[in-house]
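R.M. (postdoc): so does anyone remember the format we settled on? I'll just put the structure tokens first.
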């Protein structure tokens, strides 16, 4: 029970809880989690922006489980949901969040597309780190972040079988929290205050052995 409480504390902190507004473009960051593609398509179909960009080549996990890039796989999901191909752009070379941002920025600049306000879609536990990275690497743009709309129990239940386990996701969450603390000094993202309760929960999870994705 203590573990569930600690994970919930991290989960709540890692969410930004942004309210979506009309924007210039939706940027969907690739990963192993196809629910992110579904959320990106939902946001487009709800009319929040006229263009959607899928970003992602092969990541640490997907290079072992997929034979197409993350961006291509996500775009196919969106097209099957009714997003017209003419309103989709693909960036399929990036392999981490920093590259996602910089390569999409280059693509937007080359196409001379207005991008004063973005909606960025990622995994739920990556909302805060995504926001912090965008504000560092693309500071002139207003950023709203969103993710699949579900609680921690429902989200983790999606990893009950397959290549990626529930414990693996918890390890990644713990690693992401550590990166929120360390990455500003490396110039990768802007500073984010971490409440003591959140950091204490992180330390306890590390003590429990969730260390596989620590820097």
């Amino acid at each position: 029970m203590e573990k569930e409480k600690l994970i919930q504390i991290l989960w709540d902190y890692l969410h930004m809880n942004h309210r979506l507004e009309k924007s210039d473009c939706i940027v969907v960051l690739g990963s192993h989690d196809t629910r992110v593609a579904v959320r990106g398509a939902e946001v487009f179909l709800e009319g929040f922006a006229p263009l959607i960009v899928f970003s992602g080549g092969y990541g640490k996990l997907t290079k072992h489980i997929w034979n197409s890039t993350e961006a291509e796989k996500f775009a196919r999901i969106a097209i099957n949901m009714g997003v017209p191909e003419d309103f989709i752009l693909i960036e399929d070379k990036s392999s981490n969040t920093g590259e996602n941002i910089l390569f999409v920025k280059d693509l937007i600049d080359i196409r001379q597309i207005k991008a004063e306000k973005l909606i960025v879609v990622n995994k739920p536990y990556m909302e805060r780190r995504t926001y912090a990275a965008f504000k560092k690497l693309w500071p002139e743009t207003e950023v709203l972040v969103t993710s699949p709309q579900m609680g921690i129990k429902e989200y983790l239940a999606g990893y009950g079988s397959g290549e990626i386990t529930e414990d693996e996701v918890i390890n990644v969450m713990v690693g992401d929290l550590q990166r929120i603390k360390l990455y500003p000094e490396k110039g990768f993202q802007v500073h984010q205050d971490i409440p003591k309760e959140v950091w204490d929960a992180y330390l306890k999870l590390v003590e429990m052995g969730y260390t596989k994705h620590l820097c």
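R.M.: ...and that's the designed sequence above, right after the tokens. Also worth knowing: The mean pLDDT is 93. The two ends are 27 Å apart (CA to CA).
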